[in-house]
Amino acid sequence: MNNVMLTSATMGVVISLIGFFIGILCREKFKLPIFNPLLIAIIFTIGFVSIFHIDYDSYFFSAKYLSWLLTPATVALAVPLYKEIDKLKANWKMIVISIASGCVSSIVTVLVLSFVFRFNHAQYVTFIPKSITTAIGMGVAEELGGIVPVTVAAIIVTGIFGAIIADIVFKIFHITDPIAQGLALGASAHAIGTSKAIELGDLQGAMAGLAICTSGIITVALATIFAGII
Alpha helix locations (H) across 10-147? Predict the structure, then answer.
């Protein structure tokens, strides 16, 4: 099976997409947040490569085109933002403060937990970009001396967890404003949270897209400051 992966330019893509569509079917059938399509796709793909003893390099060679789409997909989030530009202008102060607060709280949480669990510098900076999109987070971790593969895993887990618990958190804290919902999902759960925000509405999706871009920039700036603490 490794040879099939190495000689096929699309086998890994097909396997990944099958897992994702299974996730979509599960979500539509059971109507539960835990059936997140990306989570199901990850479980399906891990199970497939484990059963057929496919090594990571072989799988990645055949699925690399999916990763190439990550950056343009993130940039495409500017489209719904442009459609809601009037609401952005009317609430820009609240939006900037909210996103900045989310970035600071995320990094401070990592800092506190790093002291609690006695992380070394490399472990600490690995988790600093956990709440920003992978395209930016990988670069931040690499620049600061972190463990990039672990950073990617942390970003994915953060995004999936945020998308799963979003409805519960909104219900418990009575968060009904679409701008607040979108900013919360984008700033805490990056692209995966944004996909959830788009499900909630166009305005939520637009605000989440804005939060991804802005929180990425703010986190890059804050990471250089906080990285020196440990």
Answer: 11-30, 37-51, 56-68, 70-75, 78-83, 85-90, 92-116, 121-127, 134-144
Number of domains in the chain: 2
In this structure, are 187 and 100 located in the same domain? yes
In this structure, are 125 and 220 located in the same domain? yes
Domain boundary among 20, 50, 68: 68
Contacts of 184 (CB under 8 A, 6+ apart): 98, 102, 166, 169, 175, 193
With 0.85 as the threshold, say if the pTM is over it: no
DSSP letter at 9 equals S
Q: Which domain holds residue 24?
A: 2-68
Alpha-carbon distance of 142 to 63, in angstroms, equals: 23
pLDDT tens-digit profile of 136-174? 898 999 999 999 999 999 998 999 999 999 999 999 999
Alpha-carbon distance values, 34 to 29, 46, 151, 155 (Å):
12, 18, 22, 17
